[in-house]
Design goal:
Elements: H1 10-19, E1 41-42, E2 45-47, H2 64-76, E3 82-83, E4 87-89, H3 97-113, H4 124-128
Parallel strand pairs: 1-3, 2-4
Family: Belongs to the NAD(P)H dehydrogenase (quinone) family.
Keywords: Oxidoreductase
Domain Flavodoxin-like fold: 1-111
């Protein structure tokens, strides 16, 4: 998905609101590592309008991991879903055709080994270190 206003697009958020409902995706007594969707994996793959430098600790947008906290931790991990390292393509509209092809190649290669990846720690330390 494209990152919109430091978040997922409204249509995707609406889908999550309608699908990840209490009783199916979570129960208030069973959240995070004890959540109802413990056997599931999630992977956020998205594009940004800004460069990787803009989404760094020193950048104007701040560290991209802080942007991911409410989406990966607050939604997916809350429901018990294990979260894989995100796949981010920074500012594809502002790079060369060759760089966009490299982005697609990297995504293709990642998909080939995706099921062998270990989930991230999904703790505050991972997001805010």
């Amino acid at each position: 998905f494209p990152l919109f206003w430091f978040n997922m697009p409204a249509i995707l958020k609406g889908w999550m609101d309608r699908v990840l409902v209490q009783g199916f995706a979570y129960d208030l007594s069973k959240t995070y590592d004890g959540g109802l969707l413990q056997d599931k994996l999630s992977l956020f793959s998205f594009t940004t309008g800004g460069s990787q430098e803009m989404y760094s600790n020193e950048g104007i947008g701040g560290d991209i991991r802080c942007v991911l906290w409410p989406m990966q931790h607050g939604i997916m991990h809350f429901c018990g879903v294990k979260v894989l390292e995100p796949h981010i393509c920074y500012a594809p509209e502002n790079v060369s055709e060759e760089k966009r092809k490299e982005m697609l190649t990297a995504w293709t290669q990642r998909l080939r080994t995706l099921w062998k990846e270990e989930p991230i720690d999904c703790s505050p330390e991972w997001y805010f270190k």
